[in-house]
Design a protein that fits this description.
The protein is mainly alpha-helical. The chain is built from 7 helices and 3 strands. The chain has a 3-stranded parallel beta sheet, with helices on both faces.
Length: 204
Amino acid sequence: TGSSRGIGKNIASKFKALGANVTNLNSSMYDLTVEEEILKLCKYLSKLRKIDILINNAGINFSEINKKINLEKYNKLMNINLKAVFLITSTVSKIMQKNKFGRIVNISSIASHRVREGRTVYSASKFGLEGFTKTLSLELAKYNILVNSIAPGFINTEMTRTMLTKNEIKKLSYQVPLKRLGKTEDITNATIFLCSNLNQFING
């Protein structure tokens, strides 16, 4: 999901280059901020016979202090960041269970470990995603399905450049040992590893 730009686009293109049959899902096809659209996607996915890998990447973010956030904005973010992951994974994991194989990777965020002002809803969604990942890994391990999450820090994507000023990006870069933001390829490579035959044990 979320394959039209940034990390999701890079992951999709690299998997294709490796010979995978990739289904790109993006907001122009299904609006995952709307429950009815999520359910429509799940109906489509449930008809597929075989899904080996699921990458839950779609997500949105906004910066606003808690007392100013309205319910509409809250629901929109939670639908795409958490509810869509829950419903899509539930649908896809049933197919994986039948085939006794699966790899699920949830793209989380550093916000699931470290917090900043103005990110109450976003952090709540990503903390929730981490809990979902860990619990699901216990439930699905017996079916040879490995469930993991990757929690990127600040990655040089369109969303990062939209949300932060050049000065903020510069300051954050200095906090990283390599003195740079992460690249989309850095996340893609970790995702590929977790989904490859090289990973037979990392779970949760």
